[in-house]
């Protein structure tokens, strides 16, 4: 792989899309590779800009791109948001201003109907924001200021039955915004200061991990105003992941505490602890990739490229450990029986040939 980055591969039909950065982040690009053999088809650079500072582990290309099958959308921090067609031609570019993001930027853009939604908490004079861009033109549809100054998560869209909500889990709070105009619908206290994991939803609940081994919140969405005392269905006192997002799979919520290399399984509807198990050597910040569930198994990949295969369900059973042999921080993509891993140096396809 050219350059460096921790963004995950995005697969559409016969193509794979990624972001990457060069040097100290002064050049950032969108990449397209052929899915059948990994050949680089094109690379498109975003407009030049001064690189914001970034933590060594984060780097300057941690935001995963997204696609609607016609265009590919990327968010590249100070280099702005970028849309290109499937031949790599720039359709539009939108600056997000000069950002002073602690440890750098990492928010992956969210496609919702005709909108591209992202949020950026930072310490610059312009202040944090959640913003919706017209995916066809890149023009701003709405922007809501945020007072939070630290955060690296990704917004998610959920359907509550009465309305759709855009969820942002970040510094000390979880917020829900109206996708039509960006107005705040509700907020919930309980997060810690540094929040990276992206929320997951299901079983009528929204699961948010606060980071730094803090609490995990199970929130009933659809509320109004401050719902801290009214809509938390259950919560854990500690043990959340700092970086990897949780997994909701077959009625269970799976987490890995990347400070201790301990995996945890809860009954999603009640918060009942089902099991905990050690995954390799306990080291600080040893997992980054989000969890994957398929075929009755849950896959935990640590930063050394070791994937721990655990049987899904109410009892802990470690089935296997697979070694990639390269540093791996990006979450894999699983499509039609093939796994696409982005490691520090390579893009690797794992699966049956032919």
Identify the quaternary structure here: single chain
- Low-pLDDT runs of 5+ residues are none
User: What structural category characterises the helix and strand content?
Assistant: mainly beta
| Assigned CATH architecture of the domain at 1-110 | Beta Barrel
Number of helices: 0
> What's the gyration radius in Å?
19 Å
Mean pLDDT: 94
CATH fold category name of the domain at 1-110: Thrombin, subunit H
How many DSSP-defined strands?
A: 32
* Structural shape: globular
Task: Name the helicity range.
Answer: under 10%
CATH class of the domain at 1-110: Mainly Beta
The percentage of residues in β strands lies in 35-45%
Strand order of the largest sheet: 13-14-15-16-20
N-to-C terminal Cα separation, in Å?
23 Å
The biggest beta sheet is recorded as: 5 strands, mixed
Which keywords apply here?
single chain; mainly beta; Thrombin, subunit H; four-stranded antiparallel β-sheet; 354 residues; 32 strands; 44% strand; Lipocalin
């Amino acid at each position: 792989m050219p350059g460096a980055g921790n963004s995950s591969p995005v697969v559409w039909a016969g193509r794979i899309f990624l972001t990457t950065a060069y040097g100290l982040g002064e050049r950032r690009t969108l990449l397209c590779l052929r899915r059948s053999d990994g050949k680089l088809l094109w690379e498109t650079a975003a407009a030049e800009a001064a690189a914001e500072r970034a933590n060594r582990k984060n780097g300057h290309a941690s935001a995963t791109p997204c696609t609607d099958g016609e265009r590919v959308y990327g968010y590249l921090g100070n280099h702005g948001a970028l849309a290109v067609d499937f031949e790599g031609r720039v359709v539009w570019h939108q600056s997000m201003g000069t950002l002073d993001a602690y440890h750098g930027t990492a928010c992956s853009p969210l496609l919702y109907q005709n909108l591209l939604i992202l949020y950026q908490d930072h310490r610059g004079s312009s202040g944090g924001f959640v913003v919706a861009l017209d995916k066809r033109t890149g023009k701003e549809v709405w922007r809501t200021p945020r007072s939070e100054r630290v955060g690296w998560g990704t917004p998610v869209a959920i359907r509550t039955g009465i309305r759709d909500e855009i969820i942002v889990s970040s510094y000390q709070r979880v917020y829900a915004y109206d996708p039509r105009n960006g107005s705040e619908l509700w907020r919930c206290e309980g997060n810690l200061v540094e929040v990276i994991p992206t929320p997951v939803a299901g079983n009528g609940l929204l699961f948010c991990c606060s980071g730094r081994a803090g609490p995990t919140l199970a929130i009933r969405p659809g509320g109004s105003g401050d719902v801290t005392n009214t809509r938390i269905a259950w919560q854990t006192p500690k043990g959340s992941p700092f970086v990897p997002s949780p997994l909701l799979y077959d009625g269970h919520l799976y987490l890995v505490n990347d400070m201790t290399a301990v995996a945890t399984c809860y009954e999603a509807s009640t918060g009942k602890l089902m099991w905990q198990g050690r995954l390799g050597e306990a080291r600080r910040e040893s997992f980054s990739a989000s969890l994957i569930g398929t075929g009755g198994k849950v896959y935990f990949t640590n930063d050394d490229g070791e994937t721990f295969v655990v049987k899904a369900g109410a009892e802990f059973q470690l089935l296997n450990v697979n070694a990639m042999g390269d540093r791996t921080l990006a979450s894999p993509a699983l499509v039609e029986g093939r796994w696409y891993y982005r490691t520090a140096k390579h893009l690797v396809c794992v699966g049956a040939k032919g």
